[in-house]
Amino acid sequence: MFYLICMISNVLEYEDQTPIRNLDNTFVDHTSDYKTRLVYKDALKSISSKTGALFPRMNQFESQTSFLSGFMIQLSEQISSLNERMEEFTNRIEELNSKLSCNRNSPS
């Protein structure tokens, strides 16, 4: 009888400890999960602080780039216009030169 009581007592203790073990395992799992989250959160803070310092530079770089691209477009248009005008000027000079040649060669 004593043996049976001891076995029942052991079974009851084991059953009572099972939820505690489960709770302990759950706590350990959650603790490691929170540690992982904290590591991720710290990493994100570190990255955001580093990139936050870079964004003004990037914005400044983007504004400089847009200014330079606008300047390059304007300069390209001016060069194209100048090339057209030089072509017209060259054609006009050639016409005048041919007229002068004709006038020199013609008998007066």
UniProtKB/TrEMBL annotation:
Has keyword Coiled coil?
yes
Coiled-coil spans are 72-106
What keywords appear on the UniProt entry? Coiled coil
Please give the superkingdom of this protein's source: Eukaryota
Tell me yes or no: is Coiled coil among this UniProt entry's keywords: yes
User: This chain belongs to which protein, by name?
Assistant: (rape) hypothetical protein
